[in-house]
Protein backbone atom coordinates (compact mmCIF):
# COMPACT_ATOMS: atom_id res chain seq x y z
CA UNK A 1 0.00 0.00 0.00
CA UNK A 2 2.78 2.38 0.94
CA UNK A 3 4.42 1.80 -2.42
CA UNK A 4 1.16 2.62 -4.19
CA UNK A 5 0.80 5.85 -2.21
CA UNK A 6 4.38 6.88 -2.98
CA UNK A 7 3.87 6.08 -6.67
CA UNK A 8 0.69 8.16 -6.74
CA UNK A 9 2.44 11.07 -5.04
CA UNK A 10 5.29 10.88 -7.56
CA UNK A 11 2.83 11.09 -10.42
CA UNK A 12 1.11 14.08 -8.86
CA UNK A 13 4.41 15.87 -8.34
CA UNK A 14 5.47 15.13 -11.89
CA UNK A 15 2.21 16.33 -13.42
CA UNK A 16 3.09 20.07 -13.52
CA UNK A 17 6.41 19.27 -15.18
CA UNK A 18 4.68 17.11 -17.76
CA UNK A 19 2.24 19.91 -18.47
CA UNK A 20 5.02 22.41 -19.25
CA UNK A 21 4.97 23.38 -22.95
CA UNK A 22 7.99 22.43 -25.01
CA UNK A 23 10.44 25.21 -25.93
CA UNK A 24 9.91 26.81 -29.31
CA UNK A 25 12.74 26.33 -31.82
CA UNK A 26 13.63 29.51 -33.69
CA UNK A 27 15.84 29.61 -36.77
CA UNK A 28 17.08 33.20 -37.08
CA UNK A 29 19.42 35.10 -39.38
CA UNK A 30 22.90 35.63 -37.90
CA UNK A 31 22.39 39.41 -37.76
CA UNK A 32 19.58 38.87 -35.23
CA UNK A 33 21.83 37.06 -32.73
CA UNK A 34 22.15 39.68 -29.99
CA UNK A 35 18.59 40.98 -30.17
CA UNK A 36 17.07 37.50 -30.24
CA UNK A 37 19.08 36.35 -27.23
CA UNK A 38 17.75 39.34 -25.31
CA UNK A 39 14.19 38.75 -26.50
CA UNK A 40 14.47 35.06 -25.62
CA UNK A 41 15.24 36.05 -22.05
CA UNK A 42 12.33 38.50 -22.03
CA UNK A 43 10.05 35.73 -23.24
CA UNK A 44 11.30 33.41 -20.49
CA UNK A 45 10.80 36.14 -17.88
CA UNK A 46 7.10 36.05 -18.76
CA UNK A 47 6.93 32.45 -17.57
CA UNK A 48 7.56 30.71 -20.88
CA UNK A 49 10.23 28.12 -21.72
CA UNK A 50 13.45 29.66 -23.03
CA UNK A 51 13.29 29.30 -26.84
CA UNK A 52 15.89 27.21 -28.63
CA UNK A 53 17.78 29.59 -30.92
CA UNK A 54 19.75 28.59 -34.00
CA UNK A 55 21.66 31.30 -35.91
CA UNK A 56 23.19 31.10 -39.38
CA UNK A 57 22.82 32.64 -42.82
CA UNK A 58 19.17 32.76 -43.90
CA UNK A 59 20.07 30.59 -46.89
CA UNK A 60 21.51 27.83 -44.70
CA UNK A 61 18.53 27.90 -42.35
CA UNK A 62 15.99 27.84 -45.18
CA UNK A 63 17.74 24.84 -46.72
CA UNK A 64 17.72 23.06 -43.37
CA UNK A 65 13.98 23.65 -43.02
CA UNK A 66 13.47 22.38 -46.56
CA UNK A 67 15.32 19.21 -45.55
CA UNK A 68 13.08 18.66 -42.53
CA UNK A 69 14.88 20.45 -39.68
CA UNK A 70 12.65 20.97 -36.65
CA UNK A 71 12.17 24.73 -36.70
CA UNK A 72 8.96 26.33 -35.43
CA UNK A 73 9.77 29.91 -36.44
CA UNK A 74 11.93 31.23 -39.26
CA UNK A 75 13.27 34.79 -39.09
CA UNK A 76 14.97 35.63 -42.39
CA UNK A 77 17.25 38.54 -43.27
CA UNK A 78 15.62 38.94 -46.68
CA UNK A 79 12.37 38.26 -48.47
CA UNK A 80 13.71 35.86 -51.16
CA UNK A 81 14.62 33.10 -48.68
CA UNK A 82 11.17 33.33 -47.11
CA UNK A 83 9.75 33.21 -50.66
CA UNK A 84 11.81 30.04 -51.15
CA UNK A 85 10.06 28.31 -48.24
CA UNK A 86 6.65 29.73 -49.08
CA UNK A 87 6.88 28.41 -52.64
CA UNK A 88 7.47 24.95 -51.15
CA UNK A 89 4.51 25.30 -48.77
CA UNK A 90 6.78 25.05 -45.73
CA UNK A 91 5.50 28.11 -43.85
CA UNK A 92 2.11 29.28 -42.64
CA UNK A 93 1.47 31.98 -45.23
CA UNK A 94 -0.93 33.97 -43.08
CA UNK A 95 1.74 34.32 -40.38
CA UNK A 96 4.28 35.99 -42.67
CA UNK A 97 5.12 39.54 -41.61
CA UNK A 98 8.12 41.85 -41.90
CA UNK A 99 8.23 43.92 -38.69
CA UNK A 100 11.84 45.18 -38.75
CA UNK A 101 14.47 46.49 -41.15
CA UNK A 102 18.15 47.41 -41.32
CA UNK A 103 20.72 49.49 -43.22
CA UNK A 104 23.81 48.53 -45.21
CA UNK A 105 27.11 50.05 -44.08
CA UNK A 106 30.84 50.08 -44.77
CA UNK A 107 33.10 49.32 -41.80
CA UNK A 108 36.82 49.18 -41.07
CA UNK A 109 38.84 48.00 -38.10
CA UNK A 110 38.42 50.35 -35.14
CA UNK A 111 42.15 51.03 -34.99
CA UNK A 112 43.78 52.84 -36.55
CA UNK A 113 40.94 55.33 -36.86
CA UNK A 114 39.78 56.24 -40.35
CA UNK A 115 37.80 59.23 -41.53
CA UNK A 116 34.11 58.74 -42.42
CA UNK A 117 33.25 58.33 -46.09
CA UNK A 118 30.26 59.66 -48.04
CA UNK A 119 29.29 56.62 -50.09
CA UNK A 120 28.07 57.38 -53.59
CA UNK A 121 28.63 56.54 -57.23
CA UNK A 122 32.01 58.25 -57.20
CA UNK A 123 33.42 56.49 -54.14
CA UNK A 124 36.46 54.33 -54.99
CA UNK A 125 36.11 51.33 -52.69
CA UNK A 126 39.23 49.59 -54.00
CA UNK A 127 41.30 52.65 -53.14
CA UNK A 128 39.76 52.65 -49.66
CA UNK A 129 40.65 48.96 -49.28
CA UNK A 130 44.32 49.82 -49.98
CA UNK A 131 44.98 46.57 -51.80
CA UNK A 132 43.14 44.37 -49.31
CA UNK A 133 39.87 42.51 -49.58
CA UNK A 134 36.37 43.69 -48.73
CA UNK A 135 34.50 41.25 -46.50
CA UNK A 136 30.79 40.58 -46.90
CA UNK A 137 28.42 37.66 -47.20
CA UNK A 138 28.69 35.48 -50.28
CA UNK A 139 26.37 37.18 -52.82
CA UNK A 140 25.47 33.76 -54.23
CA UNK A 141 23.31 32.95 -51.21
CA UNK A 142 23.84 35.23 -48.18
CA UNK A 143 21.39 38.17 -47.92
CA UNK A 144 23.95 40.80 -46.87
CA UNK A 145 26.07 39.78 -49.85
CA UNK A 146 23.10 40.19 -52.17
CA UNK A 147 22.47 43.68 -50.83
CA UNK A 148 26.19 44.44 -51.15
CA UNK A 149 26.23 43.27 -54.78
CA UNK A 150 23.23 45.47 -55.58
CA UNK A 151 24.90 48.48 -53.96
CA UNK A 152 28.16 47.86 -55.80
CA UNK A 153 26.32 47.54 -59.12
CA UNK A 154 24.52 50.81 -58.38
CA UNK A 155 27.92 52.41 -57.76
CA UNK A 156 29.22 50.97 -61.04
CA UNK A 157 31.97 49.05 -59.21
CA UNK A 158 30.76 45.45 -59.15
CA UNK A 159 33.09 44.20 -61.90
CA UNK A 160 36.12 45.80 -60.27
CA UNK A 161 35.33 44.92 -56.65
CA UNK A 162 33.87 41.42 -57.11
CA UNK A 163 37.28 39.67 -57.43
CA UNK A 164 38.43 41.40 -54.23
CA UNK A 165 35.53 40.26 -52.05
CA UNK A 166 36.14 38.01 -49.04
CA UNK A 167 32.92 36.00 -49.29
CA UNK A 168 31.78 34.85 -45.84
CA UNK A 169 29.11 32.29 -44.88
CA UNK A 170 27.13 34.90 -42.93
CA UNK A 171 27.29 38.53 -41.90
CA UNK A 172 28.86 37.84 -38.50
CA UNK A 173 31.68 35.91 -40.15
CA UNK A 174 32.29 38.87 -42.47
CA UNK A 175 32.36 41.20 -39.47
CA UNK A 176 34.90 38.95 -37.76
CA UNK A 177 37.26 39.17 -40.74
CA UNK A 178 37.37 42.95 -40.31
CA UNK A 179 37.72 42.74 -36.52
CA UNK A 180 40.73 40.43 -36.92
CA UNK A 181 42.34 42.65 -39.53
CA UNK A 182 42.06 39.96 -42.20
CA UNK A 183 40.08 42.35 -44.39
CA UNK A 184 40.54 46.14 -44.19
CA UNK A 185 36.89 46.83 -45.09
CA UNK A 186 33.56 45.09 -44.67
CA UNK A 187 30.03 45.56 -45.96
CA UNK A 188 27.64 44.55 -43.19
CA UNK A 189 24.41 45.68 -41.52
CA UNK A 190 24.36 48.76 -39.33
CA UNK A 191 23.22 46.65 -36.36
CA UNK A 192 26.29 44.41 -36.64
CA UNK A 193 28.58 47.41 -36.82
CA UNK A 194 26.93 48.87 -33.71
CA UNK A 195 27.31 45.58 -31.81
CA UNK A 196 31.06 45.35 -32.43
CA UNK A 197 33.77 47.21 -30.53
CA UNK A 198 36.31 46.00 -33.07
CA UNK A 199 35.03 47.94 -36.08
CA UNK A 200 34.25 51.55 -36.90
CA UNK A 201 31.46 52.77 -39.15
CA UNK A 202 32.82 54.53 -42.25
CA UNK A 203 29.58 55.22 -44.09
CA UNK A 204 26.06 54.10 -44.94
CA UNK A 205 25.10 53.03 -48.45
CA UNK A 206 22.26 55.12 -49.91
CA UNK A 207 18.85 53.48 -49.53
CA UNK A 208 18.31 53.68 -53.30
CA UNK A 209 21.43 51.56 -53.94
CA UNK A 210 19.75 48.31 -52.93
CA UNK A 211 16.36 46.78 -52.16
CA UNK A 212 14.90 47.60 -48.74
CA UNK A 213 16.47 45.42 -46.04
CA UNK A 214 13.52 43.76 -44.34
CA UNK A 215 13.24 40.74 -42.05
CA UNK A 216 10.24 38.49 -42.70
CA UNK A 217 9.08 36.30 -39.78
CA UNK A 218 6.84 33.25 -40.22
CA UNK A 219 5.63 30.10 -38.53
CA UNK A 220 6.74 26.91 -40.21
CA UNK A 221 4.19 24.32 -41.27
CA UNK A 222 5.18 22.03 -38.42
CA UNK A 223 4.28 24.78 -35.92
CA UNK A 224 0.72 25.25 -37.19
CA UNK A 225 -1.52 24.81 -34.16
CA UNK A 226 1.41 25.09 -31.71
CA UNK A 227 0.09 27.65 -29.21
CA UNK A 228 3.55 28.46 -27.81
CA UNK A 229 5.00 29.07 -31.26
CA UNK A 230 2.04 31.23 -32.26
CA UNK A 231 2.38 33.26 -29.07
CA UNK A 232 6.14 33.75 -29.47
CA UNK A 233 5.68 34.81 -33.09
CA UNK A 234 3.09 37.39 -32.01
CA UNK A 235 5.44 38.64 -29.28
CA UNK A 236 8.45 39.03 -31.59
CA UNK A 237 6.45 40.76 -34.32
CA UNK A 238 4.33 42.88 -32.01
CA UNK A 239 4.62 46.05 -29.93
CA UNK A 240 5.99 44.29 -26.83
CA UNK A 241 9.29 43.51 -28.58
CA UNK A 242 9.54 46.82 -30.45
CA UNK A 243 11.67 48.63 -27.87
CA UNK A 244 14.21 45.81 -27.81
CA UNK A 245 14.49 45.69 -31.59
CA UNK A 246 15.10 49.44 -31.59
CA UNK A 247 17.63 49.17 -28.76
CA UNK A 248 19.69 46.86 -30.96
CA UNK A 249 19.48 49.26 -33.88
CA UNK A 250 16.75 47.69 -36.02
CA UNK A 251 14.23 49.87 -37.76
CA UNK A 252 10.56 49.23 -37.12
CA UNK A 253 8.20 48.87 -40.04
CA UNK A 254 5.85 51.81 -40.19
UniProtKB/TrEMBL annotation:
Record InterPro entries: ModA (IPR005950), ModA/WtpA (IPR050682)
Pfam families documented for this protein: SBP_bac_11
Transmembrane segments: none
Keywords: Metal-binding, Signal
Signal peptide: 1-19
Family to which the UniProt record says this protein belongs: Belongs to the bacterial solute-binding protein ModA family.
Classification via NCBIfam families: modA, PRK10677.1
UniProt-recorded name of the protein: Molybdate ABC transporter substrate-binding protein
Organism: Falsiroseomonas tokyonensis
Organism placement in taxonomy: Bacteria, Pseudomonadati, Pseudomonadota, Alphaproteobacteria, Acetobacterales
Amino acid sequence: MRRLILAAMSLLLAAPALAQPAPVTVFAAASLTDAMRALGQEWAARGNPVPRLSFAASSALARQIEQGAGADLFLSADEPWMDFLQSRELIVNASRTSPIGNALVLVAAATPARAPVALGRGTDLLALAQGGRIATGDPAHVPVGRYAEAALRWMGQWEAVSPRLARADNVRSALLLVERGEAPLGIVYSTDAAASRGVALLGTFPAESHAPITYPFALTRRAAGNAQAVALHAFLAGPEAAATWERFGFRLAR
